[in-house]
Specification:
By secondary structure, the chain is mainly beta. The protein has one domain (4-146): CheA-289, Domain 4 (OB fold (Dihydrolipoamide Acetyltransferase, E2P)), CATH 2.40.50.180. It has 2 helices and 11 strands; from the N terminus they run βββββαββββββα. The chain has helices spanning 58-62, 137-146, and strands spanning 4-11, 14-19, 23-29, 42-48, 51-57, 71-78, 81-87, 89-96, 101-102, 115-121, 124-129. The chain has a 6-stranded mixed sheet, with no helix packed on it. The radius of gyration is 15 Å and the shape is globular.
Length: 147
Amino acid sequence: MADEQVVVFHLGKEEYCIPIHQVREIILYKGATMLPGTPKHFEGIINLRGRIIPVIDLAVKFGVEGKGGERQALIVDLGETHFGIVVDQVSEVLHLQDSDVEAAPAQVAGGGAFIRGIGKTEGRLLILLELANLLDESELSAMETAS
């Protein structure tokens, strides 16, 4: 990993981050139109300036309890696929140096392919996500179909 800027967000008590170059925009999340037959973490679709964007709830996907209340969505790019990630709150943009990031612990290797590393900054631990591994092939296919 090279030095990079990341967008930091909260899910429950934990802080996560993704590379800023994958974030298209950050919006206030006001809910989605549910689609039948989709996984529980698939919130549905939103209309963002005339474009249909599928949305997932990251807290549900990770099995963590969100804070509730007003939430935000990160609209992200994953190649040709664009989708929204609902989070509790986006807090800041940080610059992480290579020396600030360690590999994910071996204990999460199997189920944690979406964890790229752990960032350490200002006494905090940030879980750096790998968006390309966040969704499996069937979920990506559903996202492409929904949009």
